[in-house]
Amino acid sequence: xxxxxxxxxxxxxxxxxxxxxxxxxxxxxxxxxxxxxxxxxxxxxxxxxxxxxxxxxxxxxxxxxxxxxxxxxxxxxxxxxxxxxxxxxxxxxxxxxxxxxxxxxxxxxxxxxx
Amino acid sequence: xxxxxxxxxxxxxxxxxxxxxxxxxxxxxxxxxxxxxxxxxxxxxxxxxxxxxxxxxxxxxxxxxxxxxxxxxxxxxxxxxxxxxxxxxxxxxxxxxxxxxxxxxxxxxxxxxxx
Lengths: 114, 115
Known about the structure:
Structural class of chain A: mainly beta
Structural class of chain B: mainly beta
Number of helices of chain B: 0
Number of strands of chain A: 12
Shape of chain B: globular
Radius of gyration of chain B: 14 Å
Distance between the termini of chain A: 41 Å
Low-confidence stretches of chain B: none
Order of helices and strands of chain A: EEEEEEEEEEEE
Largest sheet of chain A: 6 strands, mixed
Distance between the termini of chain B: 38 Å
Order of helices and strands of chain B: EEEEEEEEEEE
Radius of gyration of chain A: 14 Å
Oligomer: heterodimer
Mean pLDDT of chain A: 93
Strand content of chain B: over 45%
């Protein structure tokens, strides 16, 4: 079955540091890939997405590139802010199944210190 | 634009009491609907999904049930809550077109504490 593996957290960075959160996947089909962000006490928000190989999703200074050859979708940001402190989830979906379920990674807690 | 609502936002219930959580979606028709649970410090667990009125698929056998009485309404229920039912419950929706990336959009969640 499909699966997503994220780097274990928590991750603690100083403001303006470079962020990388690794995400790799296995999928039976050709998946679409997503990053979601969850701020404390809130639901998940879609951060960015990519639907085919070499696509780069970007939003709010975050980027991730769909790498089919390495089955990866690593999240990066050049300069993090305190407001980026949240839990980040990598996820995928394929065209199989009637409900096109999302498969999530376990989440990575990011804390950014001033 | 589409919006998704969940209520209540927080709930504290005694063990053995019933539960009803509600989720409604506005601005779309015939969405796929999902219930997830997030235990403290853990990832997301898919509980139920629905592709239409009265159609419920259960992913994990447990103390909970779901119903979809209307197109844009999804209800999570229990007859008798357990301590292990505590968690953060999230409802999500997705459009039914096979085109597009297939992302889901989440509600604000309900924090349930069973004492």
